[in-house]
Amino acid sequence: MLRNERNFGSPRDRVDGRAKVTGAAQYAAEFNAPDLLHGYVVSSTIAKGRITSIDTQKALDVPGVLKVFTHDNRPATAWFSSSYQDEVAPPGTPFRPLYDEQIYYSGQPIALVVAESFDVARYAASLVEATYEAGAHETDLKLARAAAYVPPKKRQGMKPPASKGDAMAAYAKAPLRIANDYSIANEHHNPMEPHASTVIFEAGGKLTIHDKIQGVMNTQSYVSGVFGLPASDIHVVSPFVGGGFGSGLRPQYQLFLAVMAALDLKRSVRVEMTRDQMFTFTHRPETINTVLLGADKTGRLSALRHQAVAVTSRFEDYQEVVVNWSGILYDAENKQFDYRIAKVDTYTPGDMRAPGAPLGTFAIESAMDELAYAGNIDPLELRLRNYSTRDETTNKEFTSKELRACFQLGAEKFGWSRRSPAPRSMREGRELIGWGMASGCWEAQFSKTSAKAVLTSDGRLEVGTATADIGTGTYTILTQIGADALGLDMEQVTAKLADTTLPKSPVEGGSWTAASAGTAVQMACEALKKTLLQEAQKIEGSPLADAKYEDVVFANGRIAMADDAGRSLDLSDVVRHSGQSEIEEQATAQPDSKVQAQYAAYTHSAVFVEVRVDEQLGLVRIPRIVNAVAAGRIINPKTARSQVTGGTVWGIGMALHEESLTDHNLGRFMNHNLAEYHVPANADIYDIDVIFVPEEDDKVSPIGVKGLGEIGIVATPAAIANAIFHATGKRIRELPITIDKVLREAA
Amino acid sequence: MPAIRQHLRFILNGEDVSLSDVAPDATLLDFLRIKRSLKGTKEGCAEGDCGACTVLVGRLGRDGLVYESVNACIRFVGSLDATHVVTVEHLRGANGALHPVQQAMVDCHGSQCGFCTPGFVMSLYALWMRHARPSLAAIEEALQGNLCRCTGYEAIIRAAQAIASYGEAGNDPLVVERAAITERLRVWRDGARIDCGGRLIVPASVDDLAAIFAENPKATLVAGSTDVGLWVTKYMRPIEPAVFIGALDEMKRVETHDGVLRIGAGVTYSDARKILGEKIPELGKLIARIGGEQVRNMGTLGGNIANGSPIGDMPPPLIALDARVLLRKGSERRELPLEDFFLAYGKQDRQPGEFVEAIHVPLPAPGTRLAVHKVTKRRDEDITATLGAFAFRLDTENRVAAIRIACGGMAGTPKRALGVEQALLGQRWCEDAVLAAMERYADDFTPLSDMRASAEYRMLAARNLLMRVYLESVSGKAPVTIARDVAA
């Protein structure tokens, strides 16, 4: 385990800051190639049915148009639908763009117009005319849920926990009872960068692809599987990704279309999505939870039943963890869990920041809040009375769980003890004031990841792995870890990411990257140091000739005896004497299966919120939030705080703003732009205080890190809804809580 | 007939640009990214919502060379004659260092994914040029039009507050170049009409515009392009021939004659905010909640009226103030009450070839109380769900001597609440009268449900606004804007 490092644990500036503030950072649509062609996507206007004819002649007549690809004329691709499976595909048949005349959802790509310039492609696309035979579609979960089913094939790790006892019987006998539905709207990721792929066609038919993707290996294997190219002919390089939040986990259709066109026309092609088209692929699934709680008069749970039903597409069974969170946070003698999905005519939903967690947590933590009022118990006290000390859902001990400290430090910082318990009891001016809280957790995952560490003859270190930095700060923390390992300044270290020529890594997601890639880089650096010592000992008259690895230190660009700094060698001299231009080592980090069999690992948070509600107009604002997080060791407080702040703001979005509204008549998302799909703006954000609770954990990962990308959002929506109840006496169980709902609900 | 020039010219960062073959619907963003490979300026939404494409446009005005932030995605190249366009690539500090704005953003961790970052940098740069040490309110206002999906904004605000500690304005490229740029732009303002193949026309004067439009009544008039820009980027509607009127100085005049404020139709929201805000503070506060700074720097009062939107924010308060609109066709002019200009949804009393030349706003009589409330789902950068504008006067016996109420988002046009007014006129200004009048909203309006709010919400909120205005008027406090007031 690392200790007393110079950079690990320190608030370092992000190493890619300069590239970003100068506009020099290049995103997928910004790589150029000679004679680059531009593709523009034509989208289906119906939600279900088939294309009866598609007239492309007018588009083809526009000077500068090379080809219009449709299902009628597309080049052959892989025969089996399984070849379209990507690394994170759920069970089912992946969507195959331009495969045939069938329409599965509104906005489905039905043609790609390829032209010499972007404006020509865009204009010509407007001339493509499709006629359809429309089928009867269904996009409303409230109706589709009648046909909900337990997914026959589980997505990995997505099984609801086993039931125990008789939840209904215990509920019937319980003195305190809560039973309600809690629903969350469809949401779209809307990273600031729209999805895009630039496919550069090189001599000999090799491809270099710049894709908006959270894992270049996934792009490579997808293109290889679909188009039958050897992986060695597909070089994917995506150094900067303008936000992902899950939308870039799976290769999206613009990649397929760009590669198809490039291979067919033997030219380089770029396909960029418009903001509207960002609403024509993955999204967070609309979900309805039903929670039933039974407790004794002290609030101790005797019955816990958590059911959920969520939308999926006609062609894939997307699944996420929604109901398990209740069982991880709380134990009850009798419990029952059920998770179902219902098919609707949209694209397949997908992982979106903390997939499933804020949905299930909104339900259980709202229900717990209701139970607190029913039993006249302080909401925080109620949670302490039901605090789980082991993960009953998997029957494992926690690697660590400092949620109690999160409660304590968060409550102190917030001033929770000064809360007046009754709803509608706090007011200032025309605003009602409410204080609410909630807790949450997210699985601290660790995924097999390889990395390299290279020392060059000028004494610089390069560390690399194929994973992405979607803005989280991966470049920066890997630079910190590499610098500490070799005793160099961060300026002497370069981190390389998002390139298929780098050692293999899974997609960047699930908050596992810091722990996994961080450990892999750490291990590669350790291997490199051993090799460097061996090389140093080969030098004639080496002052380190008889040194053991344990006896040397790497500092200030030198290897030296720990007890005799005079006996040392310059690292660059070691490389030069080795006869090589550089010395490289690789290592692969993977989870310890024995530890995993015995322990469950989670990041925890306690969120405290103050809201102010203008009841005459239904306006809600959130002057302050305290989010106390226990996430193991923090590599970089600056990037870490930014992750949790950003995640908390996503929680504000889910609570108050974000909602992809469906016109069920058309089967289409209506607010497909940033004017009507509201993400929080600066004016919605006041004071957000992030506390990192000290948490030592030597089991979760070799570097003691748990990951932070998801935890910020998890408990925030529930805490906000609970605060709104405290302010107004209105219990709103449908997110987002818009001005309409605040005004409509009766207190 | 003025002299005719067949090309337009502007300065892009440090380089002179002269274009004769330019499409009327060519946007500045496409020009930068596609034609000039200046990719620091990003496209996030193509409709002026997200600010990722923020650049500065410098223009000679009354106060000399002024740089303003704009959304390049909906700004047409045709509007750029005699301007200086500045992109993030032009920013630099002394001796290869980062510019203070950029360095502060790095040090304060103002970016994560970085895609919105150049836009934030440019918005902060525009602010920094005006105020080296801006207040928090000024910072928040400068950033209203920039969305960030990663950082949660806080770090960006801290960066903005820290800029002053990173160096002085003296080394700034735009300060260093100022005299030379000013001189070049002055020379370029030659008073000619620009005509690029009859498709793109920039009139030399308002008279020239009147002649051109009378002759080509089907031409698209483009003022700030915050609406027309979307016709192009969202709907690919053809706009040629397009007549760009945003730079006509005569249309930017504001004068007061006999208690009437005469506002040129080309006055931007930003300019109006300063001028109107001084005379009628409630309007200044309202304008601060229209779009973001980039949109306010482009969009015009005349455009907000001429497009006839039922959710335009300026018409209701202007109707409440009994404003009149001055229309012109050729050399003919006519004036009519603004409320009569809006005939039905999408239909205005405007003849082919006729355009809005000015708006005449009577300054409120002494004792007039004015309240304007814009209600939206999201505090900033949102389209109105409902808007209520109230102008009224009480006599010495506390009776309502005069009252005009106009609403937005409640009907197919901006519309007066005549029934409500009637119920109050001559009545004592008391809670009972207000409660009775609130019932009359149902006679005046049948609002629709849409994505922004339900019909029930609109009705209830509109009525509650009247009660709010009453309560505020009797509490002795000035009407205050909803939630946080960034202008405070």
TrEMBL record, chain A:
Pfam families: Ald_Xan_dh_C, MoCoBD_1, MoCoBD_2
InterPro entries: Ald_Oxase/Xan_DH_a/b, Ald_Oxase/Xan_DH_a/b_sf, Ald_Oxase/xanthine_DH-like, AldOxase/xan_DH_MoCoBD1, AldOxase/xan_DH_MoCoBD2, AldOxase/xan_DH_Mopterin-bd_sf
Organism superkingdom: Bacteria
Domain Aldehyde oxidase/xanthine dehydrogenase a/b hammerhead: 22-136
PANTHER family: DEHYDROGENASE (PTHR11908:SF153), XANTHINE DEHYDROGENASE (PTHR11908)
UniProt-recorded name of the protein: Xanthine dehydrogenase family protein molybdopterin-binding subunit
UniProtKB/TrEMBL annotation, chain B:
Entries under CDD domains matching the protein: fer2
E.C. numbers: 1.17.1.4
Gene Ontology molecular function: any one: xanthine dehydrogenase activity
Transmembrane segments: none
Keywords: FAD, Flavoprotein, Iron, Metal-binding, Oxidoreductase
Residue span(s) of domain 2Fe-2S ferredoxin-type: 6-91
Residue ranges constituting the FAD-binding PCMH-type domain according to the UniProt record: 193-366
InterPro entries: 2Fe-2S-bd, 2Fe-2S-bd_dom_sf, 2Fe-2S_ferredoxin-like_sf, 2Fe-2S_ferredoxin-type, 2Fe2S_fd_BS, Ald_Oxase/xanthine_DH-like, Beta-grasp_dom_sf, CO_DH_flav_C
PROSITE patterns noted in UniProt: 2FE2S_FER_1, 2FE2S_FER_2, FAD_PCMH
Pfam families for the chain: CO_deh_flav_C, FAD_binding_5, Fer2, Fer2_2
Gene3D superfamilies: 3.10.20.30, 3.30.465.10, [2Fe-2S]-binding domain, CO dehydrogenase flavoprotein, C-terminal domain, Uridine Diphospho-n-acetylenolpyruvylglucosamine Reductase, domain 2
Lineage top rank: taxon: Bacteria
Record's protein name: Xanthine dehydrogenase small subunit
Lineage: Bacteria, Pseudomonadati, Pseudomonadota, Alphaproteobacteria, Hyphomicrobiales
